[in-house]
Amino acid sequence: MKKRHLYLMVVAAVMAVSSVSVSAVDIQTSGAIRVRDQIEMKSGAAGDNTQRNRIRLSFQYGGKAMVAENVEAGFGIATMGDHRSLNTTFGTGSQPTGSTANSTAFAQPNVAIDYAYIKHTKESMSVTLGRFRNPFFTVSQLIWDNDIRGEGAAFNYNLTDLNANITAAWYALDEKSSGLADSNMVIVQAAHSNTVMDLPVKGALTYYGTAFATGDSTVFGGTALNKELAAWQLAGEVSFVTSFVDRFRAYGDFVTNSGATTNDRNGILLGANFGSKKLAGPGTWEGDISYRYLQKAAFVPALVDSDFLSGATQSKGWTGSLKYAVDRDLIAGITYRQAYDLINFDQVHSMVQLDLSTKF
Fold it and tell me: Is 267:143 a contact under the CB 8 Å cutoff?
């Protein structure tokens, strides 16, 4: 299916939804704002011993409504940096599409459609069409940045009796006007949750595969695949009750790309999250620490965590963060990353992020 055909389907469905009386539809809206001071330090020959300080803004606003008994429509707008970043940087001259201004001072940031989807649910099944957030169970951003939005279709089936669910998605990657086959990605996941020795446990096995995406550097922003992606991911988490914190969760991520033509095809991340039962009221807090090792051919570089080694694979290192609720829904946070390049051994990339965020 061509991507433009999918968009026409979404537009037609939205027009149909708009014919419903506004008074009969309850639209639930929400938003988030984050201001960040980001300090990056690069050392070694490849990094050229540089330091960069950026003030960044992230804004998100959206809503959803049940337009019929089994039909949900959702939409959202956000500041946009690139395909895996909802940050805009102060003083960089970002301008709305079509603007001819070239000033870096007081420039207006880019705000675009973050997501727009229609979801139909029938008993234990649901189908989503449009542009939407990641529908899969994840425990980290090892191979998939949280800001990425898929364009296509997703399917979910809940196996309630087995505490399991099956999720699948088809994403359009590159619509080729030349008549060649369009690049696309298919993801399939089986997830299961249970209680083991009185401990809540959840895990998932996920397959990522591309089609007609090799040899084309436009698909993934300058990175041309020499062989189709065929990656398997195993992710899981277990929660503990402890005497020193209200909540403690250990998690892990493992990925291997069977489609790689070289042996550097694996990646792993281990981490722990802990703190108050919920990060909300004044005085509540949350901490997180993780270590990762991600080889060059383990996944597509353009999709992995954009903040770790500038969004590259071939990386290893630590991430630690601490968040504290200064007031209700006003969160102060600090994150530190220490990343090492697995190929250019002398390159070290350190990052400090100081955040103040709120939700409404």
Answer: yes
